[in-house]
Design goal:
Layout lengths: L2 E2 L3 H6 L6 E5 L5 E5 L5 E9 L8 E9 L7 H16 L4 H35 L2 H11 L7 H16 L9 H14 L1 H20 L26 H14 L3 H11 L3 H5 L6 E2 L4 E4 L10 E4 L2 H9 L32 H9 L21 H11 L5 H8 L8 H6 L5 H19 L23
Parallel strand pairs: 1-2
Antiparallel strand pairs: 2-3, 3-4, 4-5, 6-7, 7-8
Helix pairs in contact: 4-5, 5-7, 6-7, 8-9, 9-11, 9-13, 14-16
């Protein structure tokens, strides 16, 4: 192997040609490599020591390219001696450098994985916060269910408000018991419904392995509230009617229709013009909006029809909400009009629990405690004074022991004539209650009046 004492002049005089290496006579294992393109590269070549029985490995390291400034013979030779020093001591700089590079790469990969894990854990914590899980449950499990709106209200006003920010798995049995006990003090019925909504939510979470055990387990459900038996008297009906007049649109019409038709709040609030035939004086509630999923035809008495005709047409709904409810975690945006809300506020005004600014309490203030659903019970009770129970149940679209079971399966008669007569008579009775006729006024011959069954009409 030819050796030359390398100098800057000698290196610069090397011409391009065949790839070759000229070794330095002054520093063993150091030389300059000339490429076919004419590049002059300073190199070091050594044989690394290996363990007994393992063949040694030849290493070749490029120091840099000769440019006369950054790298010249003097600088390259000094760097070569620096590299070869550990080799003479039994080291292998190339292997050590590779090992260090691999270690650095592994460290960076582990750090990246750790950071990714922290981010994933933070995302999971955010995703599995109670309110976020509740919103997913409402969007997936409640979609299309008739009870969705009420269940959403119960969850948002109770558990979500109480446990916002907590991880779903951090909700304990004591939290559920404490929440239900607090709600029960205000409203036993709401406590029972909230408990049922929570059980459904936590069962859904178990199915998706968000939790292993429901915190509702071993928490006793609140007892079913005692059935209400409140029936309003004629004087109370008159006061409610007058209070509704003072409330104004839309609750004035809604409350009167609740009283006259005996239908449910949601059904009346959600009335659509497409469901009403003004000429036939009928209102067909589609099965999607009824509690028992059966289409229901309601005959509108003259008094009810007059109220419907007086409602201004502003869209597909008779009683649309003024604006869509502002919800931070809305289940989904929709352009469809929503029925009016605010029954609780209207009831507090009617009962005199709150008063409007600069205005006196409504005429209905001071009545014994009552609810809007009591109007339905009152209509049913008073209609039963002149009509048999199966007719009244058909009017209310209610299924019980009278019209359910085998009777409901095999007896499909709708009692259309009797139902129409019952609602017409009830409307006339309401009109008489609101504006009693003079004592000498004769009873209309075309309206069936309420008298105990068995007596002549």
């Amino acid at each position: 192997m030819a050796k030359e004492k390398l100098t800057d002049g000698y290196v610069e005089g090397l011409s391009k040609g065949k790839d070759r290496t000229i070794w330095d006579a002054e520093c063993a294992r150091f030389g300059v490599r000339v490429t076919p393109a004419g590049r002059r590269l300073y190199v070091v070549q050594y044989r690394a020591k290996a363990a007994p029985g393992v063949p040694s490995v030849s290493r070749k390291v490029t120091i840099g390219e000769h440019d006369g400034t950054l790298w010249n013979v003097t600088k390259a030779r000094a760097q070569a001696r620096k590299l070869l020093g550990p080799v003479d001591g039994g080291g292998d700089p190339v292997a050590e450098r590779r090992a260090k590079a691999e270690a650095d790469m592994r460290a960076r990969a582990e750090a990246a994985a750790e950071e990714a894990g922290r981010i994933a854990e933070a995302v999971a914590r955010e995703r599995d916060r109670f309110e976020a899980v509740a919103e997913r449950y409402m969007a997936v499990a409640l979609d299309g269910k008739r009870s969705a709106r009420e269940t959403e209200r119960l969850l948002r006003q109770g558990p979500v408000a109480a446990w916002a920010g907590r991880h779903i798995a951090a909700v304990r049995r004591s939290d559920v018991a404490g929440l239900i006990d607090g709600i029960r003090k205000r409203s036993p019925a709401t406590a029972r419904l909230t408990y049922a909504a929570l059980r459904g939510l936590f069962r859904w979470c178990i199915e998706r392995e968000l939790i292993e055990m429901s915190p509702c387990d071993y928490v006793k459900a609140p007892p079913r509230p005692a059935a209400r038996d409140r029936v309003l008297t004629d004087g109370e009906l008159r006061q409610v009617w007058q209070g509704a007049d003072a409330l104004g649109h839309p609750f004035s019409a809604i409350i009167k229709l609740l009283m006259l038709t005996g239908q449910r709040e949601a059904e009346v609030a959600g009335m659509r013009w497409a469901e009403i035939d003004l000429e036939a004086a009928t209102w067909i509630i589609p099965k999607e909006r009824t509690k028992n999923r059966r289409e229901h035809l309601v005959d509108l008495s003259p008094e009810a029809l007059a109220i419907v005709k007086a409602v201004p047409r502003t869209g597909e709904l008779l009683f649309p909400a003024r604006k869509a409810p502002a919800r931070k975690h809305a289940r989904r945006a929709t352009a469809e009009a929503r029925p009016v809300v605010g029954f609780s506020a209207a009831k507090r005004l009617l009962g005199g629990e709150v008063t409007r600014k600069t205005k006196a309490p409504l005429p209905s203030a001071g009545l014994a405690p009552w609810r809007f659903h009591d109007l339905r019970r009152t209509a049913a009770t008073r209609m039963a004074e002149g009509f048999p129970p199966h007719v009244v149940e058909r009017v209310l679209n209610h299924v019980s022991g009278v019209t359910g079971g085998l009777v409901g399966v095999y007896q499909r008669h709708e009692y259309r004539g009797e139902r129409k007569a019952a609602l017409k008579a009830w409307g006339a009775k309401i009109a008489q209650i609101i504006e009693p006729p003079p004592p000498d006024a004769r009873e209309p011959s075309n309206v069936r009046q309420f008298r105990p069954r068995g007596r002549a009409a």
